[in-house]
Amino acid sequence: MFVVYPDDEKVFEMKDQYFVGNSLLIKPIVKHLLKFIFQEMRRDIFQKFSRQNIRGSSSTMHLDPLALVIALNENSEAIGFLYLDDGETYDYEKGCFVYRQFTFSAGKLTSKSLSSLDNDKNILCQVN
C-alpha cells in the first residue's frame, strides 16, 4: 500500500493487503471458514461489492465471459487497463494479445488499443 500512497504513514504498517498495479486492492482471506474480514480502505478508493459468486477453477475460466467491473471515483470517473493473452504460449511475442485502456467519463465508456499492432479488432463487447 505504501508504494501507491507514500505520503500516508497509516498504510506503512498494512502488511495483509496490497495493490496489484495502482488500482486493484487485494486482501486475501487466509483463515479457514472465515466469514468476513475487516479491510482498511482509504476514503478515495472505497467501492463496496458483495454477494459476488466465485466460479470455477482457473482451468475452466477460459470458458467464462469476461466481466469488467468499473468502480467510479468520487468524480464518477474511472480509468483502467486490460491485458489478455492465451495464457499458455509465447504467442504474445508475435503480437497475439490485447492491451486496452478503458475510460469512463461524463457518463461515457471508451476503449482504445494501447498495442502498436492492430490485433484486437475482433473483440465482442456487451455493455449492461
Automatic annotation (TrEMBL):
It holds the Pfam family Glyco_hydro_31_3rd. Keywords: Glycoprotein, Glycosidase, Hydrolase, Signal. GO terms for molecular function: alpha-glucosidase activity. GO terms for biological process: N-glycan processing. Residues 1-32 form the Glycosyl hydrolase family 31 C-terminal domain. It comes from the Eukaryota. Gene3D superfamilies: Golgi alpha-mannosidase II. The keyword Signal applies. The keyword Glycoprotein applies. Residues 66-110 form the DUF5110 domain. InterPro entries: DUF5110, Glyco_hydro_31_C, Glyco_hydro_b. This is 9610_t:CDS:1. It comes from Cetraspora pellucida.
